[in-house]
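Give me the fold.
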Amino acid sequence: MNEQTHIGWKEMQAKLKADQDSLQTLYRQYVDREVASGMQGERLPYLIRADWSITLLLALCLILFSLVLKNGKKYLILHFKGFFLQRRRANLFDEQMAINLQYTFLLGAISCLLFGVAFFDFFMDSNPALIPILPSLWWVGIYTIGCALLFVVKRTLYAFVNAVFFDEEQSKRWVDAFLDVTALTGLVLFPVILFIVYFDVDTEKAVIGVLAVYTITKLMLFYKCLYNFFRLPYGALHLILYFCALELTPDFLLWKGLEWINQLLLTN
């Protein structure tokens, strides 16, 4: 009798387990059917204005701009006014102005960072597949380093070529002009980048805005190069050769280099 009771209890346990497994199976089928019958949601597109890291970078630029304008405003005004003066000998205030040269370099670094943000905005809009590959800070860092390397390469090329073909005073005036234009680029580009980022400007208009700033700075350098090194009409060919080879060609190589980096990261 005990053996029959023991066998009956095992059968009840087995039947109860089978019923539980059946309920679990039916529940999974029901859940799967409900999920499959619903509409799959779409991922929200990337918005640069909602990226907290980009906001922090622009806030940092604003703080640095405020410090530079607060402490070096007189120095910057004197430097930019002297940009259009054709001096043939050293100024008595050059040594004092050289002491405050860190403001120019700081604005130059901000210019590189802002161009990095501009490149990031353009490449992410034109090729959204790049967005999930790296965080936005990494992308901006890569583009900013590229712009900084471009600045160093240009500075080195100018130093070498000017030392060969021009005198020391002409070379010094050109270096000052190059640094001043680089610093001015950051001041002019900052409101343009703010407008592009926070007003959701489309790619075409954003490119036009950045190219407008780029064109203005190149025209300023062209003017300074014309009056510092060459005289028209005899120096026209040398002027074009000098400016295209040392100023425009490195910019084109930077653009192609960044495109190559994007494709390399995308394929790997």
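The radius of gyration is 31 Å.
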